[in-house]
Amino acid sequence: MDIDAKVNVESKTISISQTIIYKNESNAVLTEIYLNDWNHSYSTKSTPLAKRFEEEFSTKFHLAKDEQRGFTVITSIKNENDSSLEHSRLDAHPDVIKVKLENPLLPNEAYTLKLNYQLKLPDATFTDYGFTKTNDFDLKYWYITPAVYDGEWQYYSNKNLDDMFVPKSDITITITHPRNYRVTSELNFSAVGFNKGDNTQTTTLTGKDRIDTYLSLHKFPNYGFVQTDNFILISNISEKGLQGPEKALITDRITKYLSEQLGDYPHRQLLVSSIDYRKNPLYGLNQLPSFFRPFPDDLQYELKLVKTALKKYIDNVLLLNPRKEHWLSEGLQIYYLEKYVDQYYPDLKLLGTLSDIWGIKAFHAADLNFNFRYFLYAMEIARKNKDQPLSMSKDSLTKFNSNIAGKYKAGVGLNYLDEFAEDINLSQLITEFVETNQLKQIKISDFETFITSKTDKDLRWFFTDYINTRKKIDFKIADLETTEDSLKLTIKNKRDNTMPISVFKMKNDSVIGKLWVENINGTKTISIPKDSTEKFILDYDNVIPEFNQRDNYRSVKGSFLNNKPLQFRLFKDIEDPNYNQVFLMPLVEFNNIYDGLTLGAKFYNKTILRKRLNYKFSPQYGTRSKSFTGGFSVFYSHNLDEKKLYDISYGLSTAYQSFGEDAFFTRIRPSISFSFRDNSDLRSNKTSHINARYVSIKRELGENATVIVDEPDYGVFNLRYVYSNPGIINYSTFRTDFQIADKFSKLSVNYEYRKLTKSNRNISFRFFAGAFLENNSDLASNYFSFALDRPTDYLFDFNYLGRSEATGIFSQQIIIAEGGFKSKLETPFANQWMTTANFSTSIWRYIQAYGDVGLVKNKYENTKFVYDSGIRLTLVEDYFEIYFPVYSNLGWEIAEQDYDQRIRFMFTVDPQVLLGLFRRKWY
């Protein structure tokens, strides 16, 4: 490929004349060639890239101005005879070009394409590539490249995964740019020329057998070049306070390690950018603020550099399909990163220097080594039942699986394989494999064939169960029988897989033996000669990413209880499977104005990684009510793999709290819920839930109570169905709710739809309809009635700050439920039926106009038509909003003297609800 590029800084464009000589290295006759034009993936709000942003709850691309988006204008595509070739963009992939050849391209022959086109570069805020705020340019996948043909064309669209699949090429780039800019590239600099007439500079770069397209064009580049005995490493990854000589020593160690483990690098220089690290950080380090450093500056820099360099090195020498066969290169990166830490920092802890601080050192997390993080992150997603097969196409993975869990599971898996295959040295074999296949187009099957041919062990389990499925690893010691001369150990495989497990023999907390047990179908009993073994532990060295490690222990003598002693710990911790742990956490909360600030404690068993069985007991004291409050809950979640019904949860919760001045309620709520999803597409936001529960409510009124209770204590059976598709551009939910109690039964439906249009206008519509099937309650109380603007919440589901307030600021809190009105009208309840519709649309940014209409029917009264309208200030949608009524059945509310009392607000204080804003982007 010969590329002649001219950069126009003011217009953010690059004019390119390009020649591609494409050799057909297949046995097929080609009549067309497919070209990747990923700069065009920024062209509209409906490209696969734009949809990817939408799926990950990001509106930055959708809300961007037109001049921030990029596109490509193709002037001509010709062959070597200057004959124009028919070409078109694919409907499903607008960033892929199909070129029809004038003559068929036979095997081992070459075809010349001459392209002329102009790039309008995108804003770098979208993917970090394009033009920056300082008018610098970070370019990747910027020029047009051919797709790979390996029996079929391997093309796909840009989805911000940095995974274009291109054939290795001999590249010459001649780029003309203003003289005050400097080019940085992994390619070799071959010539530099100055053009005095227009004050520009022409830089020529060349490279052989290249796939990396990154080029930096900056006025003040901050890249450093370190010449080592192995190759030149170019990087702008920095660490505050670290000097040049220290960086050079670290760089030399890293390049030596890379060359030893992966073979000689085939190119003269390797470029590692801060963008590479930001897109692929060492999670756990990147979230910490700069002033809080549990790792020394030099170590932090070293870990960042070695992780990023490993990825670039492997990607540049192993020519795998980075979208469909990504797990091997990503797994090798983590595998060698683990070995690097083991080799140079064997005593490094997960929490770094924090592990030595009094108080923190008491946590189990402080005992764990640095490399435990990979197991932790991989198991985080498995415990949530949201893990995906490593062999799944990268664009089908959730963000957490793609960026974190999948890579870590692959690296942990290679280490698992290394420990199991004791007759080989896996690290040396990988080095041999990489050196043998350097710069060759390969597939995962080549790696499988190579490794399995080197060992007598059966490794099929790794490539079938571990890689190609999301089957969990979960073993337990089911029984231990002691005879006169032997120990009979029964191991149960709780999952349907063929993966092996290691068994350790322990004495005085020291390992005295180890063996691997394979092919456990159900249970398997092994007989071991009787010796001084005191305890058996499965996977003692924590090599295997096992789902549940709490049943991996069995003492030769004694009962189950002395296998797992009880342990009390302050605050949540990483689970220590050696103990039955109970955690204690002090609580300072504000639940409502009646209890005021509540002080207390929470006793619970929940750890960093999710458990199936969770319990919580939280006694508290209300500083304002001067009463003891709190609650207890116990829940069990049963996860199902590979099914639409993916979770069944059941349990019991109780609560005792104030609901008014000197007024308390006791709620007992047993429940069961069924959760459904599209198990083949975990990226989809579509879920549905069926929930059945019984809510028992008892109330107590003290001498100073101001609340009037006009209904006796009650119990309600409640059945709900919820379908949800909460996208950031298109949002919809549908709910049905059925309730039956002694005095009433009722049914309601609720539908909500929101859309962010291409013109950046928010449109929201909500419909509610509810009717009593039977209502024998006191019609004067309206306690169980449908509410137009403020539900009575007799099931005590909502987080009202002042539940019983009729006046004052807390009475103005609104929760959009039932009628969803914002104005307090003269008919606020319906004891027969109600139907309402709520609308809102954007005016400017976070300011919207809203309008509500409805029909309210009470017994023995005529149906009433109700309406209101006003201004909605959406600071954080669904979490913090303010409503300003303007006009309703009451007339011009905005002109009333008590207008400040008519303003309504929505405010969420529950941190778990707010965390949902973060989780939805990752899971």
Task: Provide the residue-averaged pLDDT.
Answer: 93
Tell me the β content. Answer: 35-45%
Structural class: alpha+beta
Task: Tell me the overall shape.
Answer: globular
Radius of gyration from the CA trace? 32 Å
Runs in which pLDDT lies below 50 for 5 or more consecutive residues are none
N- to C-terminal distance: 40 Å
What can you see in these coordinates?
The protein is an alpha+beta fold and 923 residues long. Helix content is 16%, strand content 40%. It has eleven helices and 49 strands. The protein has an 18-stranded mixed beta sheet that branches. It has a seven-stranded mixed beta sheet with strand order 4-7-2-1-13-16-15, with no helix packed on it. Strands 5-6-3-10 form a four-stranded antiparallel beta sheet, with no helix packed on it. A hairpin with a 5-residue loop joins strand 34 and strand 35 (645-660). Helix 2 packs parallel to helix 4 (297-317), helix 4 runs antiparallel to helix 5 (326-344) and helix 5 packs across helix 7 (399-420). The longest helix has 22 residues, at 399-420. The protein is globular and about 90 Å long. The mean pLDDT is 93.
